[in-house]
Amino acid sequence: MELDQLVYFQKTAELQHFTQAAAELFISQPALTHAMKKLEEEFDAPMFKKRGRNIELTEYGKILLEHVDPALEHLNLAKKEIAELKHTENCRLTAISRPLYSFPGLMEKIIETNPNISINYIRNDMKNARQHLLSGKIDFYLGPIEMNDVRIRCIKLIESPLVLAVSEKHHLSDSKYVKADDLSKLKYAGHEKGTVIRSNIEKKCIELGFVPNVQYEGTHIEDMLAAARSGQYALILPVSRLYSDISMRTSQLKIIPILGKCTNWATYFCALNEGDCKDSTNEILKNVVQYFSVLQKQMYEAYPELRDQ
């Protein structure tokens, strides 16, 4: 017995007319008649009898309808509950990224199109991001690691040069730019040794010709900003971080361009290929790409001298 047979039976019993029932079910009358004949064969009992030009239920049909009505009602409720659960699960994401609410205006834009979105963040595990994506432990990654894997979409969101950030108390605060020789003599606040961000920044500094002397290690950006505001330490960071982080925008640090060529700092969004990930992940990607496009424009409008760095 198929579910469609019960749906057809219920509608036919309601209208007591094969032609009208077939029209409302969007099937041909012969197809409906064939389905009802198969149903009667399965129960080995007639379900309808003729009454003039119409039909009516037999006593067997009345018994079946008493059970079909609540059964289909329960199935429809189950279908609705399953759809609601799938929608909830689709809106519940896990990511390796700094929280999206730390990007000014980004989370508000995402919520406009997906108001039920919920994101759980895994911190300090960037080295395992690719493995977590492929295993399904996370839904997306946002950060400096480029993933070259045919199963993963890896989209470069923005590139920007490194800059020096210091407080007004720092002796370099009045400088229009700094050279690598100046940078090698400074004390720095930085991420903890062994983290992906710390390693990547050190690689960029080596390209400039020096190894940063990190004397203060912080777990979060707020820790490093506080150390830099003291005037004792400097920060080296991509200028895009200044515009994409609420803490940085309100840090009151002076941003100084660095002379010398080095590879730009890139930020990537990585997720499984479109057909293999949740719809809400694709929605977030659209918002993130648009957000960083505007961000890059704002960044170079504020610091045009960095465009050719």
Quick tags:
alpha/beta, Arc Repressor Mutant, subunit A, D-Maltodextrin-Binding Protein, domain 2, 5-stranded mixed beta sheet, rod-shaped
Q: Kindly, what is the distance between the CA atoms of the first and last residues, rounded to a whole number of angstroms? A: 71 Å
Average pLDDT, rounded to a whole number, is 86
Gross morphology? rod-shaped
Write the element-wise H/E pattern from the N-terminal end onward. Answer: HHHEEHEHEHEEEHEHEHEHHEEH
How are the strands of the largest sheet arranged? 4-3-5-12-6
Q: Supply the number of helical segments.
A: 12
CATH topology of the largest domain: D-Maltodextrin-Binding Protein, domain 2
**Biggest sheet, open or closed, and with what strands and sense?**
5 strands, mixed
Rg value: 32 Å
What's the count of strands?
A: 12
**Approximately how much helix is present in the residues?**
40-55%
CATH architecture of the largest domain: 3-Layer(aba) Sandwich
**SS class:** alpha/beta
Low confidence ranges: none
Strand content: 15-25%
- CATH secondary-structure class of the largest domain: Alpha Beta
Number of structural units classed as domains: 3
